[in-house]
Amino acid sequence: MSDHVYKKIELTGSSKTSVEDAIQNAIAAAAKSLQHLDWFEVLEVRGDISNGAVDHYQVSLKVGFRLND
Amino acid sequence: MSDHVYKKIELTGSSKTSVEDAIQNAIAAAAKSLQHLDWFEVLEVRGDISNGAVDHYQVSLKVGFRLND
Amino acid sequence: MSDHVYKKIELTGSSKTSVEDAIQNAIAAAAKSLQHLDWFEVLEVRGDISNGAVDHYQVSLKVGFRLND
Amino acid sequence: MSDHVYKKIELTGSSKTSVEDAIQNAIAAAAKSLQHLDWFEVLEVRGDISNGAVDHYQVSLKVGFRLND
Amino acid sequence: MSDHVYKKIELTGSSKTSVEDAIQNAIAAAAKSLQHLDWFEVLEVRGDISNGAVDHYQVSLKVGFRLND
Amino acid sequence: MSDHVYKKIELTGSSKTSVEDAIQNAIAAAAKSLQHLDWFEVLEVRGDISNGAVDHYQVSLKVGFRLND
Amino acid sequence: MSDHVYKKIELTGSSKTSVEDAIQNAIAAAAKSLQHLDWFEVLEVRGDISNGAVDHYQVSLKVGFRLND
Amino acid sequence: MSDHVYKKIELTGSSKTSVEDAIQNAIAAAAKSLQHLDWFEVLEVRGDISNGAVDHYQVSLKVGFRLND
Amino acid sequence: MSDHVYKKIELTGSSKTSVEDAIQNAIAAAAKSLQHLDWFEVLEVRGDISNGAVDHYQVSLKVGFRLND
Amino acid sequence: MSDHVYKKIELTGSSKTSVEDAIQNAIAAAAKSLQHLDWFEVLEVRGDISNGAVDHYQVSLKVGFRLND
Amino acid sequence: MSDHVYKKIELTGSSKTSVEDAIQNAIAAAAKSLQHLDWFEVLEVRGDISNGAVDHYQVSLKVGFRLND
Amino acid sequence: MSDHVYKKIELTGSSKTSVEDAIQNAIAAAAKSLQHLDWFEVLEVRGDISNGAVDHYQVSLKVGFRLND
Q1: How far apart are CA E20 and CA C32, in angstroms?
Q2: Which of K14, K26, K29 sits opposite G2 (nearest CB)?
Q3: Apex CA G19: angle with CA G14 and CA G25, to 5°?
Q4: Cβ K1–H56 below 8 Å, yes or no?
Q5: Best mutation site among L7, L11, L63, L65 for testing chain C: the one with the most C CBs within 10 Å?
Q6: CA distance B16 to B30
Q7: Which among A26, A48, B2, F40 could bridge D56 via Cys, Cβ 3.0 to 4.6 Å?
């Protein structure tokens, strides 16, 4: 990493099944328009409830990617 | 949400299988006595260890629900 | 817990499949050299990305164990 | 305050006009069922956007009240 | 703890003598109406001053208790 | 929110009159180039002083918006 | 700001009408004895309740001022 | 508190016997030069060790006092 | 301290009587196997409740000690 | 600053020589595509180790810039 | 430190060359009017940018000094 | 990093010249007894003052290293 500069963006992904799936969805969306995605950091896990059960998970994360030279 | 007031309570659910299951258990317990459960926010993930492996996960979360009019 | 003193160490485990699996890997590694592992507390969830998807999860946790008398 | 025990609950009030109005709405709702409301502490200010403008403010606060003897 | 759901409430106890006494007062007040009190976590220590000396300590704490099945 | 991915950006708006007006100014600026603005979260309130009075408020906030499909 | 040293002090102002008015009151009090007040940072918003409504707002803030050369 | 402005200063008191005694020492020192001391908030408890035992406690606290009119 | 390197470890001590006693117990346990213990920092105070009263205090602290040359 | 809206982005710069150099590298990279860079705030300092010495420093910072009118 | 009471003040120093130089400038300014300066704690590192490069560093720190007996 | 478990320890290094030098001193001390040192994270920068100037910097950091297989 010694020669590069990285940018971090903050995303919120969601999923009806798991925290990991919500992370994957957010990263997949970022990968559509950004190259060189390198790492992520989870900031917050929350979600919506309906009928007394989890309806979906919402995971906010920072995604770091290398800036193009 | 513009006309309502919400209350948040803090719960700790547990599960031998996953973080998501511990969340579901806490919400299911809250749903027995409270209506209008709306969202949750994970505060802390911890757990007990026995015999060198996770025995169960303990997830603390805030649960928000709409106050009755 | 009233008569004991506990020590906490900080570990980072990783897994290609889930947050829970990364926790288990860290605890299993600690159990090789330490007895009386008692509880864990998750500090941070992050991970590496390759080809626009999660490559592996990295979970940092504190592990508490009872000091030998 | 020297002889009393206080309980704090967490509420989220909302308002289309101001942060102060959202606080007042939350406290007014609490006052319907609780006596001896004594103080509040603002935890978070957020809100919903529609058509490129604030639709309403949402203010989370702790409200402290003296427990009945 | 593996099969239970716990609720945490936030209390502020006070005492003219010590931090520990303020904690005991808050827990004693909670025990009047709640069963299965299990643990507490200190959140904040503050107090009032009069005549250039501590008049009383105010200790805010979370108290966790098991929900009835 | 269950099928979408959201991005959050951080803005600082300012106003000579109020905290709410500074929030509105930041959101209005974001709405010029971004669609689907959905919510905001206040991070910090500060401001400049001149002649012993508030000259203007500066409010930093995160603004969340839905990514285009 | 490049050649100066600044000091920050912490104040709590109050007002029956608004958060902004409490900020102004604190700054006006500081301006009576200090010159070169330059900026403020809000640390905490709380207040007292009486008769089920906000009695007054209390806003804690840091105020920065340039030290005299 | 509705008409006043308060200032907070940060002090560190110490004591060989207890946390409470360290708080009292800090407040007593402040009372020598300041009037209208009103409340304190504990920020940090630490201390020095010598010969494998606590030598003295060091308690950092904010002390709030009303500004003279 | 200018020529040394220090290591900090995290311990949890407990006591049925006071916060200070729990700190002393943790430090005494550390002193059995470590030399040059120099200072401690309290991280968390919590405890267990039984029969509606504090059963014992649990205090987590960092203990710093000088590394041997 | 009273009439403008600012955006903050988060960058990570690196350098083999110093924290300041890592900050400069991140800002220089941002300046290639953004105008009106105005201030930065350091969020985190970390780095990689190789052969028992610092290989390079990694500094994460927020960079604020004025939005074009 | 066992018999003394310390006060901490918060300062912001600046420098065009380095973080360390900004710290030194703040401490030198404090030393003009205060005796017994004992230690400092860095709170925040930020700075101003001009022409796409750091113009100067701004370092906020707490400075602790012993109160006169 | 996908197959390994890492441990983090906390160290405080010091230096009369710079923050970077204090970091290097801490890492060099750790490298005497530990292999596979991989990264560090700065937690706190503070220092001692004598004669109105910085006497030495003290930097606390976490150092992560791979556990032996």
Answers
A1: 39
A2: K14
A3: 45
A4: yes
A5: L7
A6: 19
A7: B2
Instruction: List chain A residues with CB under 8 Å of J16.
Output: 2
Whole-number Cα distances in Å, C19 to B51, C61, D55, H47: 20, 11, 37, 37
Contact at CB, B19 and C24, closer than 8 angstroms:
no
Q: Which residue among E10, E30, E48 places its CB closest to the CB of D1?
A: E48
Dist. CA H1–CA D35, nearest whole Å: 21
Interchain contact H/C (3 or more Cβ pairs less than 8 Å): no
CA distance readout (Å), H7 to D42, E1, E51, H34, I65: 20, 46, 17, 11, 37
C-alpha distances in Å from residue F58, one per residue of E49, F43, K43:
35, 11, 21
pLDDT of residue H68: 72
Distance CA K54, CA K57 (A): 7
Q: CATH says L6-66 is which class?
A: alpha beta
Per the DSSP assignment, residues forming a β-bridge with F13 are F59
**Cα dist from J1 to F17, F58, J6, J7, whole Å:** 14, 8, 9, 13
State both tokens at C42.
């998750």
Q: How far is CA D50 from the centre of its chain?
A: 23
CA dist., res. F23 & res. D53, Å (int): 9
Partner-chain residue, chosen from I1, I8, I67, that has the shortest CB–CB distance to L10: I8
The single-letter code of the amino acid at J51 is N
Residue F2, pLDDT score: 53
Alpha-carbon distance of D17 to D21, in angstroms, equals 7
The DSSP code for D1 is -
Distance between CA atoms of residues L38 and L15, nearest Å: 22
Interface test with F, best of G1, G17, G18, G23 (most F CBs within 10 A): G23
Q: What confidence score (pLDDT) does residue F69 get?
A: 62
> What one-letter code names the amino acid at L5?
V
Across the interface, whether the CB atoms of J1 and F60 are under 8 A apart is answered: no
Give the mean model confidence (pLDDT) for residues C33-56: 97
Cβ neighbours of residue E66 under 8 Å, at least 6 residues apart?
E4, E5, E6, E36, E38
Read off the tokens for J41.
Answer: 């705030």
Token pair 């200018």 in the structure block, residue: I2
Q: Which residues of chain I are modeled with pLDDT < 70?
A: 1-3, 69
- What number is the ipTM of this complex? 0.95
From chain L, the residues in CB contact with J53 under 8 A are 24, 27-28, 31
The tens digit of pLDDT for each residue in F26-36 reads 999 999 999 99
User: From the centroid of its chain, how far is CA C66?
Assistant: 16
Q: Which of C48, C52, C54 sits opposite A23 (nearest CB)?
A: C54
Other C-beta atoms within 10 Å of E51: how many? 7
- Estimate to the nearest angstrom the gap between the alpha carbon of C46 and the chain centroid: 13
- Contact check, Cβ <8 Å, D14/B7: no
Q: F48 is written with which tokens? A: 């400049």
Q: Based on the number of CB atoms within 10 Å of its own CB, is A38 exposed (0-12), middle (13-18) or buried (19 or more)?
A: middle
Chains adjacent to D (≥3 CB pairs closer than 8 angstroms): B, E, F, G
- What b-and-e string marks burial along I13-45, b requiring 16 or more CB atoms within 10 Å of the CB? bbbeebbbbbbbbbbebbbeeeeebbbbbbeeb
- Judge: I24–H53 Cβ closer than 8 Å, yes or no: yes
Residue L25's φ and ψ, nearest 5 degrees, are -65, -40
Q: Per-residue pLDDT tens for L14-54?
A: 999 999 999 999 999 999 999 999 999 999 999 999 999 99
Residue C12 C-beta-side C-alpha neighbours within 13 Å: 22
Question: With an 8 Å Cβ cutoff, are F5 and A25 in contact?
Answer: yes
Tens of pLDDT along K13-42?
999 999 999 999 999 999 999 999 999 999
